[in-house]
């Protein structure tokens, strides 16, 4: 399997060097370019066409939130994985709303970062457990921030009513998506084909009126399919 081609975006050169070394050592990821801020990242994505962007948030000129918004406008299918030292809602929620496919903390192990890149390039969402906790607290109204649009428009009662409309198999797939499994992993776990998993995923999004894995994960947390102890 070819390595995942990644553009690394961080304003600290020493940190970029360390991350490049760790990812290259895995043999599964190739850092094809580096940018020190969002402006450079936008330029280099056009030039290098990476499989994924590994993005910091706090950067000069254009931060990770602004850069992610712009990248998703220009390249909706390009996954952006956030690598940040912050796990507070003031960083987590805006970047997820901007379209980031995942959020990993800088204290994570190298293999966690490789696994996260593999997940987001497979169309999955991946959140560090501390980040998932922040999202959950926000959904429960304990975070003090502004809820996401889906959380605002869907009460817990309405969400559970929608959950009742799902088949047993769809609930299984939804739960595994919320745990960050890829389509391949779900297919292997449930002994079904990848196409069947993709069909279940599409049905889930249509039935629940949700549009990506992040929203599916939020729904799973809200309805209790994914508990705090499991993240």
TrEMBL record:
<dbReference type="Pfam" id="PF00072">
    <property type="entry name" value="Response_reg"/>
</dbReference>
<keyword id="KW-0597">Phosphoprotein</keyword>
<dbReference type="InterPro" id="IPR011006">
    <property type="entry name" value="CheY-like_superfamily"/>
</dbReference>
<dbReference type="InterPro" id="IPR058245">
    <property type="entry name" value="NreC/VraR/RcsB-like_REC"/>
</dbReference>
<keyword id="KW-0238">DNA-binding</keyword>
<dbReference type="InterPro" id="IPR039420">
    <property type="entry name" value="WalR-like"/>
</dbReference>
<dbReference type="InterPro" id="IPR016032">
    <property type="entry name" value="Sig_transdc_resp-reg_C-effctor"/>
</dbReference>
<comment type="function">
    <text>May play the central regulatory role in sporulation. It may be an element of the effector pathway responsible for the activation of sporulation genes in response to nutritional stress. Spo0A may act in concert with spo0H (a sigma factor) to control the expression of some genes that are critical to the sporulation process.</text>
</comment>
<dbReference type="Pfam" id="PF00196">
    <property type="entry name" value="GerE"/>
</dbReference>
<keyword id="KW-0804">Transcription</keyword>
<dbReference type="InterPro" id="IPR000792">
    <property type="entry name" value="Tscrpt_reg_LuxR_C"/>
</dbReference>
<feature type="domain" description="Response regulatory">
    <location>
        <begin position="5"/>
        <end position="121"/>
    </location>
</feature>
<keyword id="KW-0805">Transcription regulation</keyword>
<feature type="region of interest" description="Disordered">
    <location>
        <begin position="138"/>
        <end position="157"/>
    </location>
</feature>
<feature type="modified residue" description="4-aspartylphosphate">
    <location>
        <position position="56"/>
    </location>
</feature>
<protein>
    <recommendedName>
        <fullName>Stage 0 sporulation protein A homolog</fullName>
    </recommendedName>
</protein>
<feature type="domain" description="HTH luxR-type">
    <location>
        <begin position="159"/>
        <end position="224"/>
    </location>
</feature>
<dbReference type="InterPro" id="IPR001789">
    <property type="entry name" value="Sig_transdc_resp-reg_receiver"/>
</dbReference>
